[in-house]
Amino acid sequence: MIIRFLLILSFLIFVNCSKENQEDRKGQALELMSKMQKELLTNLTESIKNQGLVASISHCSRISPKLENEISGTNWKIKRISEKNRNPNHSPDEIQLSVLKHWEEKIQNKFAPDTFIYNNEERFFVMKPILIAPNCLGCHGIEKEILPEVKKEILKIYPNDKAFGYKVGDLRGAFIAEYFQTK
């Protein structure tokens, strides 16, 4: 009876610690993704203001991976993903793609997409949706409405670009913060 009690107690402590770890990691992930979003938006806004939209495309192609690397740490990898990506390194995996599709359905049904947490013994990541805002349309809007010089610069850097055709409020993709155990 005592052994049974100790086993149950051990299990409950393990489950409680796992939930605490998940909440701690979720908080860290949200903080890292918010930092990425804020720094990327600030950098891009300043670049557009100072250099114009065309020059800012090249700036964005350099600053985004740089920020991803700087904000990612020993145990974290931060990046953006999209089904309609501009950078092929930003393709979602199968699990992430299913979340993006679920979010699309929610948006079509007039519900806001929510933060998603994936947690099992091998993997932990958090996804935060990226929605198209009015200032995104210069590079991500309806193709015929994107200025020809902007489209030309995008295709020069990203010849297989798929990241256009959006309207305000559309799902652009997600920020991902994935946690890796140190061994």
Explain what the structure shows.
The protein is α+β, with helices and mostly antiparallel strands. The protein has one domain (2-179). Helices cover 54% and strands 15% of the residues. It contains five helices and four strands. It has helices at residues 2-51, 53-71, 94-108, 137-140, 148-157; strands spanning 76-81, 116-119, 124-131, 171-179. Strands 1-4-3-2 form a four-stranded antiparallel sheet. Helix 1 packs antiparallel against helix 2 (53-71) and helix 2 packs parallel to helix 5. It is globular. InterPro entries: Tll0287-like_dom. It comes from Leptospira kobayashii. This is Tll0287-like domain-containing protein.
Uncertain spans, ≥5 residues at pLDDT below 50?
2-17
* Secondary structure: helix percent: 40-55%
| Global structural class | alpha+beta
Q: How far is the first residue's CA from the last residue's CA?
A: 37 Å
Q: Give the strand tally.
A: 4
Give the helix tally: 5
Strand order, sheet with most strands: 1-4-3-2
Order of helices and strands: HHEHEEHHE
Q: Please tell me the total number of domains.
A: 1
Pfam families: Tll0287-like (PF11845)
Organism: Leptospira kobayashii
Protein name: Tll0287-like domain-containing protein
Topology:
Layout: H1 2-51, H2 53-71, E1 76-81, H3 94-108, E2 116-119, E3 124-131, H4 137-140, H5 148-157, E4 171-179
Antiparallel strand pairs: 1-4, 2-3, 3-4
